[in-house]
């Protein structure tokens, strides 16, 4: 299966070690994530039934996953009846081939794009470029990343790893004149650049935040108005949609249009919420295509524990509270889906390459679970994936030996005594707070990335025997 841009090329530990050396990156990330998380806390605190909304969102999504084939068929029927053409793609390569051919059929050599995780996931821009078609990102952050010849590092704010001075330099190199690095000046430079693109584009490409089965409607929420331009001005509109984005009814949107803006941008509602259903003669695009993409979602759905990752509404709240993401940034994950959600979603959608290391990119602190608007228990899935993933032969042998010793009290006591006697001649480097900073191989595999506590001078059983006179 072709996974597109969800497969990490480097193991997470190696990539994270490199990113940790960038002090400017860490400063940019800390400022941005703390700003967003503080805004989120304020607006979430205004909602008295926030936990009930989270529960409702999770229940709706679980209902969708339990009858996904039925709802997809309903959506295809209603969207087709409304004048749209529905296509199905098993993987990234097939989805890119479908979209590329649709653009070629129009004769266009340039398309305008709404910010879309699905198109990033399948590598659509690269596929279009290979076919001689220029894909213009119109979301400001996506445009910055594209002009920098970079890749996104955040689900919601793709250019979060840049500060405004760096953005001005990027604009200047690409002929977008900005007199200062003040945000209004940068936005004006981007606006002048994009206005001509909007007015001349014959094809628009979007994703969708939600797809309503009962009506065949698609929904896009955004903050800049670029989405509205892309969705209404071109003659042809092509929407690439993950199959898990289905909602059963229009009424279900009421829950998610409260959860999503508060969790993502810290806003009470999105400035622009666009809904469209098929084709309306004389209004908007007159040719509408919808490409429903699987790309590993069916395999994820088959896992009773891991399937909850498909509830994700791409709000990025988990990234903004994650201590690991805040320090290493999105590029360390190697997948288009970074942070805690990427650590459980990418390995399930494609277990290829370095994706196997992503479930270990977490402290299991649980902050992501508390922040998730649809109650995805990310720590639970991380532990599940660690248990079901590959383990070195030496690790399996060590765990079997430890299990054998701990199943019997006398064996366990003897093992503790032997360990203390064996540790006595071992030399280690102690940290300031009574920790072990370095141990000899093979224990150095542990202390190379974390400190270990100093061995206790006395076991609990020995203390108990001394204090209580009991063995």
Automatic annotation (TrEMBL):
- Domain 4Fe-4S ferredoxin-type stretches: 309-376
Q: Which Pfam families match?
A: Fer4_8 (PF13183), LUD_dom (PF02589), LutB_C (PF11870)
Q: Keyword set for this entry?
A: 4Fe-4S, Electron transport, Iron, Iron-sulfur, Metal-binding, Repeat, Transport
Q: Which InterPro entries match?
A: 4Fe4S_Fe-S-bd (IPR017896), 4Fe4S_Fe_S_CS (IPR017900), FTHF_cligase-like_sf (IPR024185), Helical_ferredxn (IPR009051), LUD_dom (IPR003741), LutB/LldF (IPR004452), LutB_C (IPR024569), NagB/RpiA_transferase-like (IPR037171)
Per UniProt, residues of the Lactate utilization protein B C-terminal domain are 387-467
Iron-sulfur keyword on record: yes
| Residue stretches making up the LUD domain | 72-293
Task: Extract one GO BP annotation from the record.
Answer: lactate metabolic process
Q: Does the keyword Cell cycle apply?
A: no
Molecular functions (GO terms): 4 iron, 4 sulfur cluster binding; metal ion binding
List the PANTHER family hit by this protein, alphabetically: LACTATE UTILIZATION PROTEIN B (PTHR47153:SF2)
Name under which the protein is recorded: Iron-sulfur cluster-binding protein
Its ancestry begins with: Bacteria, Bacillati, Actinomycetota, Actinomycetes, Micromonosporales
């Amino acid at each position: 299966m072709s996974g597109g841009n969800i497969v990490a090329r480097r193991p997470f530990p190696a990539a994270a070690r490199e990113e940790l050396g960038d002090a400017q990156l860490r400063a940019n990330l800390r400022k941005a994530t703390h700003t967003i998380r503080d805004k989120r806390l304020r607006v979430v605190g205004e909602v008295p039934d926030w936990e009930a909304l989270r529960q409702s969102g999770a229940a709706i999504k679980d209902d969708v996953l339990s009858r996904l084939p039925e709802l997809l068929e309903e959506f295809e029927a209603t969207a087709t009846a409304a004048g749209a053409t529905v296509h199905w793609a098993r993987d990234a390569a097939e989805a890119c081939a479908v979209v590329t051919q649709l653009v070629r059929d129009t004769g266009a050599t340039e398309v305008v794009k709404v910010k879309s995780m699905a198109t990033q996931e399948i590598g659509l821009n690269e596929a279009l470029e290979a076919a001689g078609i220029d894909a213009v990102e119109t979301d400001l952050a996506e445009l910055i990343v594209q002009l920098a010849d970079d890749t996104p590092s955040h689900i919601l704010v793709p250019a979060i790893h840049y500060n405004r001075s760096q953005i001005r330099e990027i604009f200047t190199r690409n002929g977008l004149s900005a007199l200062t690095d003040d945000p209004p000046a940068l936005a004006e430079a981007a606006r002048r650049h994009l206005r001509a693109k909007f007015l001349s584009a014959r094809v628009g490409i979007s994703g969708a935040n939600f797809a309503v089965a009962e009506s065949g409607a698609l929904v896009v929420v955004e903050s800049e108005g670029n989405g509205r331009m892309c969705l209404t001005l071109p003659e042809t509109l092509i929407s690439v949609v993950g199959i898990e984005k289905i909602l059963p009814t229009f009424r279900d949107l009421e829950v998610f249009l409260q959860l999503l803006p508060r969790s993502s941008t810290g806003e009470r509602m999105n400035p622009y919420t666009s809904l469209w259903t098929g084709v309306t003669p004389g209004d908007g695009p007159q040719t509408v295509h919808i490409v429903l993409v699987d790309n590993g979602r069916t395999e994820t759905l088959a896992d009773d524990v891991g399937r909850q990752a498909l509830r994700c509404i791409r709000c990025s709240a988990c990234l903004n509270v994650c201590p690991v993401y805040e320090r290493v940034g999105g590029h360390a994950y190697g997948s288009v889906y970074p942070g805690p959600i990427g650590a459980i979603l990418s390995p399930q959608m494609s277990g290829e390459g370095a994706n196997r290391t992503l479930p270990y990119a977490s402290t299991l602190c649980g902050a992501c679970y508390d922040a998730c608007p649809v109650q995805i228990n990310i720590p639970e899935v991380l532990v599940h994936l660690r248990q079901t993933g590959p383990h070195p032969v030496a690790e399996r042998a060590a765990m079997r030996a430890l299990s054998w010793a701990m199943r019997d009290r006398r064996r366990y006591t003897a093992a503790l005594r032997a360990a203390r006697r064996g540790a006595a001649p071992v030399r280690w480097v102690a940290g300031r707070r009574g920790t072990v900073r370095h141990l000899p191989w093979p224990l150095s595999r542990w202390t190379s990335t974390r400190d270990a506590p100093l061995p206790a001078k006395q076991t609990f059983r020995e203390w108990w025997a001394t204090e209580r006179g009991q063995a």
